[in-house]
Amino acid sequence: MRRRTFISLLGAAAAWPLAGRAQQAAMPVIGVLNDYTEADPFGQAQLAAFRDELGKLGWTDARNVRIDGCRR
Predict the structure, then answer these.
(1) Position 14 in a domain
(2) For the whole model, what pTM was predicted?
(3) In the beta sheet, which residues pair with residue 33?
(4) For 11-53, how does the pLDDT look when each residue is reduced to its tens digit (9 = 90+)?
(5) Exposed (0-12), middle (13-18) or buried (19+): which is 51, by Cβ within 10 Å?
């Protein structure tokens, strides 16, 4: 019985450092589709309002959510 206990403890000690290297949770991604150019003030105002509203809900770009902008 002591041999089995020793072997199980040895196996647990060998696996213990690997538990700290678990995969991190994936960050949520929001995709934004728009038809506006970078110089369009209306499009920039809409994107800023979108980011502000997300901020009010507790979502901040690059902190707890990633916002990807796509143009059609």
Answers:
(1) no
(2) 0.56
(3) 70
(4) 766 666 555 566 667 889 988 887 777 788 888 888 889 889 9
(5) middle
